[in-house]
Amino acid sequence: MAATSNMFSDNKTNNWFKACLALNVTKEGLAYLLDTELQKIHATVGRGCGNCSIEKLIPCPTLPFCNKSKHKCRFHASQKPKQCSVCDQVKQNITVYHRYSKPSWRNTDAKKWASDSWEIGKCFLPPDGYGRVPTVQESDFNGVISIMLNCTHFQNCLSSSCISPPPPDKQCPLEMVRQIGRDVRHTSDCKITDADLQGYFQTLSTLLADPICLQHDHSAKTAHARLDHLQNDRMSLTELGEMLKGAYQTLENVKMAGECFSKEAEKTLRAGIKRIKSMKKIGEQRLKSTTKVGEQRLKTMTKVVEQRIESKRKDAEQKLESKIQDGTQRIESNVNDGIVRIQQSARKTASEDYERGVADLRQRLIQHYNDTTCNVPLLTLDQSLDKRITDMYAAPKIHQIKIEKDGKLVKNEKQVLTYKELFYTDNKLIQRIYIQGEPGRGKSTCAVKLVDDWCNSNQPSSGASIKHPAFEDRLTIQKFKLLFFITLRDSRDQTDVTQMIKKQLIDKMFFEDECADVYKLLVQILKTEICLVVREGLDEWVSPSDSNLAEPSMAGFSKDTCTVLTTSRPWKLADERIKNSQIDSLFEIEGISDPYAFAKNILRCIIHQKKDLQKTVDTFNLFVSRRKLQSLSSSPMLYALVICTWVDTIEDEAHLKGYSLCILYTTLLESLCKKANSATGYFNESTPPPVHCFYSSSYLQPNIEHLDKLAEVAFKLLFSSERESSIVFDDITLSNHFSNEEFTVRKMFALKAGILTNRNDKSRTGRSYSFVHKTVQEFLAAYHIACNPRVIDDVISRYLKLNTCLYLDIAQVLIFVCGMKICAANELSALMNQCHVVDVHPPRPYSPCDFQLIIESGIREAAANKQDDIHLQLSHFYITKSNVRDCNVIWSTNTSNVELLLVVTSSVFFGTMQSLVSSDEHPSHFEVNLSSCNKLKSLQLSGKHMWLIDTASPAASEHPVWIILDSTDPAQCADPPPVLPSIERILLDHVTCSSSWLRSLFRTLMALDHEVVCELKDCDIQSFAMHAVSRSYTDISAKLQTSNNTFNMQIYNHTRVTKRKNWEVVYDCPGLWESLRGRNIKSLTLSGRDQCLNVNHLESLSQSLSSLKQLNTLTIYVLRFINIRLPKSLKHLHIYCNGLSAIQLRKCVNILSACDQQIEVKLEFGCSFIKENKIEWNFEYDSSDMFCFQPIPVEKYMTILQELETAQNVAMKRFRIYDRIRSNMLTGDADSAWSVRGSVGHGVDNDNVDIENVQDKTYIKFIRYINNDIINRISMRFLMIPASNLSTRL
Questions:
Q1: 1017, 1066 in Cβ contact below 8 A?
Q2: Residues of 652-667 as b/e, b for ≥16 C-beta within 10 angstroms?
Q3: Confidence at residue 1111, expressed as pLDDT on a 0 to 100 scale
Q4: Is 729 helix (H, G, I), strand (E, B) or coil?
Q5: What pLDDT is recorded for position 1166?
Q6: Contacts by residues 277-284 (CB-CB < 8 Å, ≥ 24 positions apart)
Q7: Could you tell me where the DSSP H helices lie in 113-262?
Q8: Would you say residue 449 has pLDDT above 70?
Q9: ω before 61 within 30° of 0 (cis)?
Q10: Nearest to residue 1160, comparing CAs of 1135, 1178, 1136, 1139?
Q11: Which pLDDT belongs to residue 762?
Q12: CA 332, CA 92: separation in Å to the nearest integer?
């Protein structure tokens, strides 16, 4: 039975009485957490020795403990200070944990530090009155809260909403909780108002429901429920009595603690207890009296019954027993049914209340969205001209972006047209969805249309008449019970989405006294209902300075029931703090899919109804086509501006100049200024415009002082170190940039013109301000830079040094500056390029980097505004057919800065060469001279439509791109200038080049003092043998490594289809070998990529080798014996051969014997004879399948060994035979597949250690890839001595 807590006639006294009970309930709810955490603290601070008292551990004198009287210290009267390393460490650790480093040592018994965690906790209590409190359960409310405030450990157990700002700030929520206890205990009249009582309950309930620990604590949950019962008078009489006793015990504890407690409060508490006891006593007396009366009546009735049924006792007893049993069953059944009905009714009532609450919240959200969100401005720059979203909306162009395992973003070309594609994958609801898009592409409009469709999901779709409807499946989003739409730019000071919903939605839809119940309902909804949260404008949200969040927290939202859709600019999602694992599905919005339909919708909204709509639309589209403004249709914001500007100036089309963004935004700015001041004025020769795009304006000149000052403000805010106030700011921030006299005037002008907007902000004093759109702020900031170029060095340079990664965030500013003042843009691009070089990522395989795209946009903007001397700086070039015209403008001024160059040509290059360049000279090709690229590290050339030439090549070609390498031969110049001194990697992919150009490239690389990797992929190398051009379309692929006159060439064997549609294997070509002729190579290695080298053009290779006058060491890994001419400078020859017969071995020795110089030979070969297989080629074979390896017994080679041992011109060092014991090992120790049979001959095996083999990569390749059919191999080492040396020795 529920009992009322209204124990007194005065309502305010009853409120005070409830507050006392509430404090005791809260204390009990916190006790378990406190006890648990104190045990953890005990384990951290350590355990005492168990023998030291607190008096021993505190030096004398120490204030405030030591008070000497007659030269004696009362505190140390029984114990003298004495050091204890164990206890002193515990004492020091306790002091570290104390927020104010002043533990209450009088409260604690140091002897119990070894076993009792409560004695540790008592050090954080108030200094007096708690020494005899034995447990945390017997402490009072003030003691519990004091421990949580004074011990810094508990700041990890509570959320920031409970301890921010931190103690002792009076605004700290936990400090406010402690103040509630003080207010209740120290009241003089025991009276509390209704409003204060409700505030107490809300504050205490919020503490008990803190999400970090208490929300999951059973004691806290129980206490939270009891608070709710107490607040709503649902307490049982027994429970109320127990709580009152607890409150009275609190009174006794307060007295023990020495705190002041009013006599009136004590009197009131005693009266409450007395009244409870009295009510309980009266109830017991009534129950006793009723029992006695019942007994007497029962006796009387029993006697009457006995007399009446005496004659028929047996029958009566049976009937009576039957009736009693039946009655008992009925009573039990009725009682059970009643209990069930009560429980069902309670559950049904709670469920009905919940459903009514959800339905009411949904209805209010729909009404709120219909009144506010679903009406959007026709122009972003004119908030007053708003229309219903359905009147002006056009389907967006949205594509899904797939995130590959390696992090690569791959765009799905299929357009997303339904909500099911947006929210579901394989019929499974997606949890975290991100839609990215550049400024003005329609992200916000798309989000608003989603909200409108949800609000009207039960109404019939209007898309039946549309030719290609999009996002008409409203039933898909009807599955979301609730939709919460929040604009992140309006919540810059908040980190939690739940709080944003409360501020932006609940606080605006409900009365203040209703909000608390709706907050509780919201928590339950987020756990149970399928909801959609739309976070609009992540890039406009800045986390508070004390937070390192990249996006607002979704704490409290169930991942199983809640879907989150976030819109943002791409640069924000590039933040490394936003992991790919956090993005379940990524989409990109690229504007509107049908500009024609969009223009028609906008024109329908603004032109006079008497005008012919279709004719007007056709006229506008013709204007767009003539002015080449189609590119602006990708931005709904700018396209709507073009449409509205055109409508305002239909009679004067010349008003809109070209497609310059600067001129477009100048027109925007002019139309805004006209609203605040309609006076006209013009720039002329006597009063020239500050920037070119202002020249033809009519309303800017009279307002130029306002604009100059607003541009300065826009610049300073945009480049401020306090990023949280760079976009949205308050009156104080705005006033910092104006004098007192001009602040009001400038602000009112900006507000009237619409350049600035303001909004009510409940969390701030006054209003919050922002520029009407971020691009407007960027345009004004660029205008300030153009008028004051010195700020680039003074401000922007410092800003980028502090925020290197933000250089892409000011991209739009650079583009605007390019159209206003190119010399300032050149300087700004140099700063940004420095940041880009530091922040550079691996180049994209199919598109330029973001910074290059920015530079290209700046070039086009400068050209549209007739700016000369475009010298924008760029170090990473990616040149394709789509950007060659722009790159040609700045290439000549960036050759000394370029670090990475990628040139890609395709079969469909620009048809007219005039489109390649923007200068008046109109050269017939785009020319890249590598000789000037001193910082170039990586060079990638791809495509057959470029011509690679040097000074020795014919100067005639129809190719549109020429790559010139003017490498001077050192023999012709005593001190040649360095060419490509920084190059590290070169990739030639499907290019056509001459052997002369390739030879010049090799000469350049050989002159460098560091290693360079050069890779050829399917290249056509043209031979110039015999002074005649011989085309060799052999699709050569090779990997070359050069370093300090060392040359390593690995040629890839691959197949191709001949003109007769037959398969053939391509190995080498004459042009490749010609490129080596005459080089200053001292060490040369020739092999295949993973296998041996099969030489088809032996004569060309021999000629090239014989021309290497400085070659000292030659290493070659071949399939079979080849007869090559060796240069006279050769001293060391290493030959690895898959198969060598005895006859071929003798032939090889004879060739070496004919040399005129002494050569040290290392010969490794398989004992086999190789012949070609006649097979029909298919993809299942590789090049090794084309040959057959026939083993040759090692005895066949013994005769040659005997001849070598007796020859005078040969000094044998090794003749070692190996037997195969298993197949090749492609990893690990390759030699483990062979065992040494032994060395043959007398004194032949002089070098027993194969140290050089371990270091020889070609030897390792030979061992790993030698054919498995070869069962024996021979390793030889010998010195070949020429005849001239023999005659000298003789």
A1: no
A2: eeebbbebbbbbbbbb
A3: 92
A4: strand
A5: 92
A6: 279/237, 280/237, 280/241
A7: 117-121, 141-150, 160-163, 173-185, 194-208, 218-231, 237-256
A8: yes
A9: yes
A10: 1135
A11: 41
A12: 66
The string of pLDDT tens digits covering residues 874-900 is 999 988 887 888 888 888 888 888 999
Look at residues 1117, 1142, 1148, 1155 and name the one whose alpha carbon lies nearest to residue 1197.
Answer: 1142
763, 697 contact by CB (below 8 A): no
Q: What is the pLDDT of residue 613?
A: 85
Contact call for residues 595 and 633 (beta carbons, < 8 A): yes
Cα separation, 671 vs 648, whole angstroms: 10
Q: What's the CA gap between 1202 and 1240, in Å, rounded?
A: 10
pLDDT at position 1174, please? 66
Q: Out of 200-204, 549-553, 809-813, 1181-1185, which region has the weakest mean confidence (pLDDT)?
A: 1181-1185
Q: What is d(CA 1265, CA 1271) in angstroms, rounded to the nearest whole number?
A: 13
Task: Identify the weakest region by mean pLDDT among 219-233, 417-431, 462-476, 940-954.
Answer: 462-476
Q: How far apart are CA 906 and CA 1281, in angstroms?
A: 56
Q: Is the pLDDT of residue 400 over 50?
A: yes
Q: How many CB atoms lie within 10 A of CB 100?
A: 12
Q: What distance in Å separates the CA atoms of residue 990 and residue 1020, rounded to the nearest whole number?
A: 7
Classify 121 as helix, strand or coil: helix
Secondary structure (H, E, C), 1157-1179? CCEEEEEEEECEEEEECCCCCCC
Q: Report DSSP state, residue 1137.
A: E
Q: Which residues pair with residue 387 across a beta bridge? A: 376
Number of C-beta neighbours around residue 1205 at 10 A? 17
The DSSP code sequence of 203-239 is: HHHHHHT-TTTGGG-HHHHHHHHHHHHHHTT-EEHHH
State the Cα torsion 490-495-501-503 to the nearest 10°: -60
Give residue 98's pLDDT band: very low, low, confident or very high (50, 70, 90): very high
What dihedral angle (degrees, nearest 10) is formed by the CA atoms of 136, 140, 142, 148?
20
Token readout for 1242 is: 């007398």
User: Mean of the pLDDT values across residues 11-21?
Assistant: 86
What b/e sequence results for 1180-1199 when a residue is b if at least 16 CB atoms lie within 10 Å of its CB, and e otherwise? eeebbebbebeebebeebee
Q: Which residues pair with residue 386 across a beta bridge?
A: 377
pLDDT band at residue 819, thresholds of 50, 70 and 90? very high
323 — pLDDT class (breaks 50, 70, 90): confident
Burial class (CB in 10 A: 0-12, 13-18, 19+), 550: middle
User: 916 phi and psi, to 5 degrees?
Assistant: -75, -30
- Residue 1066 has a pLDDT of 62
C-beta pairs of 852-858 under 8 Å, 24+ apart in sequence: 852/876, 852/877, 852/878, 852/883, 854/808, 854/811, 854/814, 854/815, 855/829, 855/886, 855/890, 856/883, 856/886, 856/887, 857/811, 857/815, 857/818, 858/814, 858/815, 858/817, 858/818, 858/825, 858/829
Radius of gyration of the chain (CA): 45
Tokens of 887: 């790159």
Residues above pLDDT 70, as percent of the chain: 80
| CA angle (791, 794, 797) in 5-degree steps | 95
Give tens-digit pLDDT for 477-497: 888 989 999 998 888 778 888
